[in-house]
What does this fold into?
Amino acid sequence: MNNLRTVADVLEKSSRPLLCGHIMPDGDSLGSVLALGMGLQSVGKEVTIVSSDPLPDLYRFLPGIDEIVVGSVPDRKYDLLVVVDCSVPERLGSTITPTVDSGLPVVVIDHHVNDQPFGHHNYVRSSAAATGEIIMELLELLGVSINLDIAINLYTAIVTDTGSFRFENTTPETHSKAAELVKFGVPVSRLSNLIFGEQPLKSIRLLEAALNSLEVSDCGRIAWISIDRDKIDALGAEDQHIEGLISYPRKIKGVELAISFRELDKQKVKVSFRSKYTVDVNFLAKKFGGGGHVRASGCTIQGTLQEVKEVVLKEAQEIFRGC
Ligand code: 5GP
Ligand code: MN
Ligand code: MN
It folds into this structure.
């Protein structure tokens, strides 16, 4: 792994970088890629940002979001691929993953737990609460002056990945970086409302369905919800409306491990894990080919909803010695 100065040097030498984050983009992925894109543009780079997946409506307020190209990588000349907030090439999405092996030099800037990061150059710091924290340091190394637009993007990256500074990943460093960003005029209360305070009706309807599916293990340490495809389709809901539902089983007093099962199709289920104090859910997700962080992770498993629930719950119950 490189140090951040090396990554800054590689970026300085590039003139036409292609930037991207991960599939099902979240606040950290989008805020980081936009802040870095704006910063690089301000020092004269010709920047292109691409997302394989559509952008959630929730993040429409992010400055510069309309500049992101959704879908295929535009047919332009690039001299560098810069990947942020993504630990494995597969999570770049079908339109971008092939670019990793296209001969273009690749730089990865990330904070997921990962002992084998990809890319010709990479900087991974799993102690950073958000990739946005690392991007903020990188911009300083690049001599970029932070403005309000960049500050809003970085603040959003940090506030979303820390669940508004409530998760265990929040450090003194996270707070001091956020405080520095607020000095640029970030409208904290307005952002808080946009991100956490309001949701479209279909999200609430989906929550209703999710809570109806809620189950808790006999010992009370594991709680899970299941959302089937038919329900998602009937409500016209998308990924963006499902994100966040897992916080409900996690909220239950005594629950250490929360799981959400989301049917992607009849043979594929997306599983999300969250823990509170002790369970290493990155380790758990890795058993099923996924990953993430110690307290938040995920994976996609082949099988019907029922089959996937059985295999995952068996593994989860082992952690609590058959609970
Ligand atoms: P979520 O459950 O919200 O989709 O993801 C929680 C965390 O786990 C995020 O940091 C995300 O990047 C990571 N994650 C989710 N699904 C996967 C996966 O299939 N593979 C890997 N490597 N990480 C994942
Ligand atoms: Mn992310
Ligand atoms: Mn992140």
Q: What stands out?
A: The mean pLDDT is 97. The first strand starts at residue 17 and ends at 20. Residues 4-196 form a domain with the inorganic pyrophosphatase (n-terminal core) fold (CATH 3.90.1640.10). The pocket of guanosine-5'-monophosphate (ligand 1) is lined by residues 87-88, 91, 112, 272, 290-293, 296-300 (CB under 6 Å).
